[in-house]
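Notes taken during the Thursday session

The instructor put the following on the board and asked us to keep it in front of us for the whole hour. The protein is ALOG domain-containing protein. We were told not to look anything up and to reason only from what is written here. First, the residues (226 in total):
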Amino acid sequence: MDAISNGCGGGLVGRSSSVAAPLSRYESQKRRDWNTFLQYLKNHKPPLSLLRCSGAHVIEFMKYLDQFGKTKVHTLGCTFFGHPNPPAPCTCPLKQAWGSLDALIGRLRAAYEENGGKPESNPFGARAVRIYLREVRESQAKARGIPYEKKKRKRPTTAATATTSNATNSSSSGMVVDGSGGGGSSLSDHHHVGGGGVSTTTTANNHVDMVAHFHQQPNTSSITSI
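Then, after some discussion, the predicted structure tokens were revealed:
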């Protein structure tokens, strides 16, 4: 280890080497998702470059991931369609849950720009992708019988309410308030996924399955060009 004198008594001060801080769970997952998508493009028939990737290819990628899904999606012909708690198993397929896809696209959209992509050409932010995700959300909500609720707007803070109340009281009582003195006061047009699931989706397990699939079958023949 290199050492330098600190100038007072000949003591030695160690020169510490810079160590990269460990990635957060979100950053680690984003990196794995990005590498998985790049591998998907490489295995595409014919292979796709990132520059040629469009919103349609992103939608195709999400449909491809359904084979790794853990969420039971009831079809219209299923007896349990719209049933929030089915009493028995059925033969409906397993797919990716809307929440998992929505989070995935958010991470890939950020990763695209972090790797040099321009925001205006980001395929993960394409209108077709947003429409597709909305259709998946609505169809899964109907299949589960449990609608997704929109986030409620936050009410005004107590301080703001109190200030407004004081101003109203002052005005009604004929008092003049001198302002100089003091006072107070964050999908596809042509694709539709039916039905939603009732089982729990495990994102980490899904990712492990996807990565294993890509490495075990580098020349996946099921990927077709749009």
